[in-house]
Design brief:
The structure is a single chain. The chain has 279 residues and is an alpha/beta fold. Helices cover 37% and strands 23% of the residues. The protein has two domains: 189 residues, Rossmann fold, CATH 3.40.50; 82 residues, no CATH class. The chain has eleven helices and 13 strands. The strands form three sheets. The chain has a six-stranded mixed beta sheet with strand order 9-10-11-6-12-13, sandwiched between helices. Strands 3, 4, 5, 7 and 8 form a five-stranded antiparallel beta sheet that branches.
Length: 279
């Protein structure tokens, strides 16, 4: 795990990424719902191959941030730069084509389709046959379908799931469904992978495997990963830079060691000590 070093644009990235353009940069990002400020002044930098974490108590606004980054929500203010280019005004599918893929807190698979077909849905960005070729099942369609199936099996093998290719997605155990959602996101060839509570519902052994696989994904595809997670063992064990969100605002940023010893972070998670509350 590389140490974090400062870069000119008011942030820190892993040392190996210091001479590369950040994959994600936000500045003063915020959104209001009516009179409620849900996220405010959200400013982060994610290095090109960084594994970064976004943590905070329940209701802090973490998933809202992911919805902003993928333009599910249009920000009220602020800037999002993906690979140096503003994402303002883009549709969610355009954000995906530009290089952001995500998983969801609540699993969103096509449960009646096969495991392989779920992955192939994620491969649509890389397929180019025409509607006529698809309807008439012309040779160009079958050639790309064959290539897509081989690619789906290759991606599934990352999680040792290629033997499950013909299973119905809805028949998989919970942990395997989580992994399948990550594989489907990878199929769109992202530059930045957003994982929303990827370890939710997993046992300690599955979580340990997930940690190793996230590292493997980063190293193999040379992409960045930004994850929301409540499992602090996973966060502290894998993330290089961590931002802590509370009531929609970042209250701390730094390395795992800096974050776990930060009194403001401890207070946000645990509350003030009893004697302080009655002082």
């Amino acid at each position: 795990m590389d140490k974090l070093v400062p870069v000119p644009s008011r942030g820190v990235v892993p040392e190996r990424d210091v001479d590369k353009r950040p994959i994600l940069e936000t500045n003063n990002l915020g959104i209001d719902f009516g009179g409620l400020i849900a996220v405010d002044d959200f400013t982060i930098l994610v290095g090109r191959t960084e594994i970064a974490g976004l943590i905070g108590p329940n209701g802090a606004g973490k998933t809202t941030v992911f919805n902003l980054l993928t333009n599910v929500y249009q920000p009220t203010r602020g800037i999002i730069m993906l690979d140096g280019i503003s994402t303002q005004g883009l549709k969610t599918y355009q954000i995906n084509k530009r290089g952001i893929a995500r998983t969801f807190q609540n699993i969103r698979l096509f449960k009646e389709l096969s495991v392989a077909d779920n992955v192939k849905i994620g491969l649509q960005n890389t397929m180019s046959y025409s509607l006529a070729e698809a309807v008439l099942r012309l040779p160009g369609y079958w050639k790309q379908e064959k290539r897509a199936h081989a690619r789906a099996l290759e991606l599934l093998s990352i999680f040792n799931m290629d033997h499950m290719a013909d299973w119905k997605a809805g028949s998989l155990p919970y942990g395997a469904q989580r992994r399948l959602e990550i594989v489907r996101a990878l199929a769109s060839e992202p530059k930045l992978l957003l994982l929303d509570e990827p370890a939710a519902g997993m046992n300690p052994s599955e979580t340990a495997d997930l940690m190793e696989n996230i590292r493997k994904i980063r190293d193999r595809f040379q992409i960045a990963v930004l994850l929301i997670e409540h499992d602090m063992n996973l966060v502290m064990g894998i993330c290089e830079g961590i931002a802590v969100l509370n009531y929609g605002r970042i209250i701390a940023k730094g390395s795992p060691d800096e974050i776990k010893s930060n009194p403001v972070v401890i207070e946000a998670y645990l509350g003030k000590r009893e004697e302080e509350n009655h002082a």
